[in-house]
Design goal:
GMP Synthetase, Chain A, domain 3, three-stranded mixed β-sheet, alpha+beta, 58% helix
Length: 90
């Protein structure tokens, strides 16, 4: 299991903003955070269930590419969950 550092979190967010443009990034990725990376899978959290579904449907590959390019680990799948789900895990 690997947890991105705070600096890597910011870099992932910046990469997504660059890839998608500020309008689309602000629409879906505010409060976005990359959780743990296990093997080839990344678990990420979005602001709401709606945002999580939109990100998974439209931008899963973009998220994988952004994470992979920052943490220098292969990412083949992304599981997107609402942010409040991350709080119930702890």
């Amino acid at each position: 299991m690997y947890l991105p550092t705070p600096v890597e979190q910011l870099a992932i967010q910046a990469r997504l903003n660059f890839m998608l443009g500020p309008r689309e990034y602000d629409r879906l990725f505010i409060d976005f955070v990359c959780g743990e990376i296990r093997g080839l899978s990344a678990h990420v959290f979005a602001r709401s269930e709606y945002n999580a579904n939109e990100i998974a449907l439209l931008y899963g590959a973009h998220v994988a590419i952004a994470i992979e390019s920052i943490v220098k680990r292969p990412i083949r799948s992304v599981k997107v969950q609402p942010r409040n789900f991350s709080n119930s895990q702890t």
